[in-house]
Amino acid sequence: MMTRTSLLLLLTSSLVQSDASGCPSLAASQGCFCQFQIKAKRVDFSCNSTSLEDLLTSTETIADSQQVVWHLKYSNVSIGHFKKSLLGSLRANHFIALDCGITSIDQDAFSGLSDDLESLDFGQNKLERVPTPALESLANLDTLDLSNNLIETVHAEAFKGLKSLRFLSLLGNRIKFVDDLAFKGVGGSLTHLNLIGNALSTVPSKPLQILSDLQWLHLHENRITSLAKEDFSGMGENLEELGLASNQLEEIPDRAFAYLKMLNSLDLDGNRIRYIHPKAFKGIERSLEWLKLGENQLSAIPAESLRRLKNLMDLNLRQNHIEKILEDDFKDYGETLQFIYLQKNRIHTIEMKALEELDSLGWLYLSSNNLSVVSDETFQPVLDTLQAIDLSDNPFNCDCHIAWFRDLIRDKKFNVVNMGKETRCRTPPRLNGKSIASVSAEDLVCVEKASTGAEDSSPPLEDSSRGVKDSSQGGKDSSQRMEDSSHQFLACPSLVLLLLLTLLST
Length: 506
Known about the structure:
By secondary structure, this protein is of the alpha/beta class. It contains ten helices and 27 strands. The strands form six sheets. It has a 17-stranded mixed sheet, with helices on one face. β12 (about 190-195), α4 and β13 form a beta-alpha-beta unit. It is elongated and about 90 Å long. It comes from Larinioides sclopetarius. This is LRRCT domain-containing protein.
């Protein structure tokens, strides 16, 4: 028989032990929730837009269940100073505290998480510096996200103790200065560094030299005005992806990336680039496969700079000032290209042999340009490999020269992007606004230009040689007829007399 004491113990323990779903009961909580993942056999716990008191009570209940929380999330809870008591004895693998107004963190706030915590996200808070003392005990931390805080300086040894750290995001802060020893302690482990959306005026080259195993570096949306070969020296040869989009670069100098022997992807979108040195990509000829140069100020395809890139697969030149695609623009490097983005330029001419080198081309984007004609001979070399083409929003002249393209669309051999919606005729006026796919063959006619002069009234001749012969013969017959007529006229005296009387009377 169960004693009264045993019954009380059972009832007490039921308040903190997992229910049938695997989660402890959170009595009267307004914004905290526990979810048990049955297949994974793990617990997720979150508190959103609730009071600090409710968060503390619910967190304590989860901690007393002695379960390791897989995902722990606090969001939109007014915390300010993050105290150790907020977590208590709770254990978790992944912890997010998002938009909680956190300004500072107790040194021992995460001491109970040191053995289990793999990722920590304190994004969208009000931290003014990296909370090094609080982080130092997290030896197993793999990912740290301090995005969208108020950090202006990354001080020396800011990530000391995080010997397992591989992924670090400092996106959207106000960072102007990175100490030369900022990454000391994580140099051998850090593989991904995100510094997007800060206030850096130069590439922080000396701090980066410590990161010997870095594979992924994003410096988008800073204020970087120039590059030098030395900017990436000493970083090792493991960097595969470099992002420099939306800075203030105006040119790419000689051998700018020569030290990055393994660089596979380079993003230079959204700068002010007008000039690229012919040897700008020397050193990465064999490794680079993805290159973004969109939204710059290039007036032509930088062919001389690109010729060295023997394995380039994806070339993005959208939204520049390019007017022509010349015959040798893809020479020596075009055979590996699979994607070409040239939309939103000013292209009005594609020379006849411009696409001949593009043996692997699958996707071609030429929308929003000034093309009025697309030549069959120009596109013929790529039709066997092409899978998609976008020619929408161009001022096409719909005559006989575009008939082949209309037929190609109807055959549906590949995807013509936006064809039915936006690829339309601009001229002649009678076809303005009409979809090219819907134009009949009878409408796609070429009208020969009429020549001027007296000869235009003469009927067309079958061929030029015959025309010359007929013309000379015609002249001879005409003079003969005139001579015959004069003879007939003089042979009739009565007509002559009548003519004379008429002249005298007038």
